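Look over this entry.
=====
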Amino acid sequence: MCARLEVHPADCLFTDDYDVDMDVEAARATGTQAHLSAGKEQTVARIAAHLDGAASPDHPHEAG
């Protein structure tokens, strides 16, 4: 998908609300930032942080 969109995986954010974070871990393994949703407010804040270029609140070592 990243190649098709001509973007770097590190510049993308994958979000999921599925209880098993298998997809989130798979996204992270590709270098994509990923967020397992624990609710609407947290997910909206994570997306906003990503768009602002901030580090992930749940993975502060990742750049946005």
User: Anything to note?
Assistant: The CA atoms of residues 17 and 39 lie 8 Å apart. Residues 60-64 have pLDDT under 50 and may be disordered.
